[in-house]
């Protein structure tokens, strides 16, 4: 058995998982120990550790530094796709943007935040939707802020370059033609107009939040599921003060709910739930 595959002691798993939770909020239990083998191999080899156990022991016994952040980042799940779980995008198209355009017609400004944007498909889907269905927004100030903890995910998002499989997940052939430039080698680059609508920034949701504008729409999808109840409650409370007013919208992932927070009212439309300030 190679060192890399030797079983990892439960105490090391627990020590590392508690560091992960403390630093990035992601809560993992012993049933997820297998992720250590699959996700930390790059960190093990990049820094010349003799295997996963020596890496874990280093992380557990040393102050948090660069290697820690690489390991924490490796434990995040970056799964995403264009127009993921299509229903919220349908509601954005049929209801939410129409309402916001009406309510913000004097300010002619929309601030949107894709929190935990991973490799960019979510904020770019919003940009595509706005360009395709809301020509009346020409001349408006539209800002889409996209944040994530993962530097690697943000780097890819900023480049806006996707492979054939990624581009085909959620986009029609017509949308690919309209919004992407085909590069030699089979990759596709988002066009400059859509790219310029999105600003990418690194942000750890469990640290202090930087000064940000108040938002008309926040999408925080498929990230709260990784946090424990206390962390979730704290983030949801902070989101509340980040929404501009009672006509602003918060959309979570389809399996996520914040019914525990009485400061929000939940609205159910077709298969989608969204939240607004009470
Ligand atoms: C499954 S992806 C969701 C992407 C997109 N919102 C979607 O629904 O398709 C979860 C993202 O949350 C990010 N994440 C995890 N912990 C985070 C934290 N503490 N702060 C900010 N982002 C975090 C991960 O890096 C990952 O890109």
List keywords for this structure.
278 residues, alpha/beta, Chemotaxis Receptor Methyltransferase Cher, domain 1, Rossmann fold, 2 domains, seven-stranded mixed beta sheet, three-stranded antiparallel beta sheet, 42% helix, globular, binds S-adenosylmethionine
Structure report:
With 278 residues, the chain is α/β, with parallel strands linked by helices. The protein has two domains: 3-74, Chemotaxis Receptor Methyltransferase Cher, domain 1 (Orthogonal Bundle); 87-277, Rossmann fold (3-Layer(aba) Sandwich). Helices cover 42% and strands 17% of the residues. The protein has eleven helices and ten strands. It has helices spanning 10-24, 34-46, 52-61, 66-74, 87-103, 121-133, 151-159, 164-168, 173-179, 192-197, 229-242; strands spanning 109-115, 141-148, 161-162, 180-182, 188-190, 198-202, 217-220, 249-252, 264-269, 272-277. Helix 6 links the parallel strand 1 (109-115) and strand 2 (141-148). The longest helix is centred in the middle third of the chain and has 17 residues, at 87-103. The mean pLDDT is 96. S-adenosylmethionine binds next to loops.
Question: In brief, what are we looking at here?
Answer:
It is built from eleven helices and ten strands. With 278 residues, the protein is of the alpha/beta class.
